[in-house]
Amino acid sequence: MKSLKLYGKQDLRFEEAEKPTLDDSNEVIIRVRAVGICGSDTSRYAKLGPYVEGMIFGHELSGEIVEVGENVTYLQPGDRIAGVPTLVCKDLEGVEECYFCKKAEYARCENLSVIGAKRPGGFAQYVKLPAENCVPIPKNVDYESASMVEPISVVLHGFYKSSTKVGDTVVIVGCGNMGLIAVQIAEIQGASKIIAVDIENSALEDARESGATHTINSMEEDALKKIEKITQGKMADLSVEAAGSKITSAQIFAYSKKGGEVLFLGIPYADVKIKRFYFEKIVRSELTVLGSWNSVSAPFPGKEYPTAVNLLSTGKLDVSSMITHRLKLYEGPEIFNKLIQQDKDEVFGKIIFKPNE
Fold first, then answer.
1. pLDDT above 90 covers what percent of the chain?
2. Which stretches of 76-152 are assigned E, i.e. beta strand?
């Protein structure tokens, strides 16, 4: 089968790979219909390299079941699913269940991994998953949107940690794919003001179309002063860091009100240096700082995934406008190279591969 394998930093190759076979009676094989590039994929390609040299890359996927293990009774060939890429202790042969898995705190699993890291991933025509890592999708949810169930679930996982209520003010910093999903989730939860902050006007326009009530280009105006003005000095109930920037990860503490919350969804992949002014906000404003990792909860894979599917199915959440590229697998090395070069003449939103087209 055709696949994309990561051999090293900036070394992604379009190659033939063996089609997966069932080794466990609780596994299924999926024909991959759509698989997206995650921001973490770009960082690993550009900066970190693979966990295992030559591993099939990618983890945001949807597809069609083509084969099921003998113990799988609730899925059958032909079923349409969104994949849960997260693997925890129970999925790893020879691994004893860790303290956090015993508590059903799966996002904190000491052995947590995702496909595409140490097991073959979704940038291929076929992929193998445990049956319980498959979430059924209705016919009115297309495969492209379904491939984004995992990133939607990542955002939901974070928002579930917060105490946001109808009528709250939410600041979202970073209007990439995760930020735009966060804008829609904030709107669904009934936020009265949704303030989106970014350094690109095109991203801010996308945020406004997604439901942001106010937008701020922090390269053109002081974000803190503008938020103070919009909120009449009250600031935000919740501030969400979705940019994964070492700069915004330090500044975001100033955007929440006293007693407010700060939620980190982004990963800066760099040292974060915080000026005293921003750091003291944690103490002086008695902030609650929330770190959010992955997308799973209990019972596995958690309510995040069916909620994401429901939001797509009912039309409350629409991610189709975020998709800017629909590509074949052989175009993978070129598009990853373009992503790290950040060609200003090309707009990059969600990039979807169609492995079987």
1. 97
2. 80-83, 86-87, 113-114, 126-130, 134-136
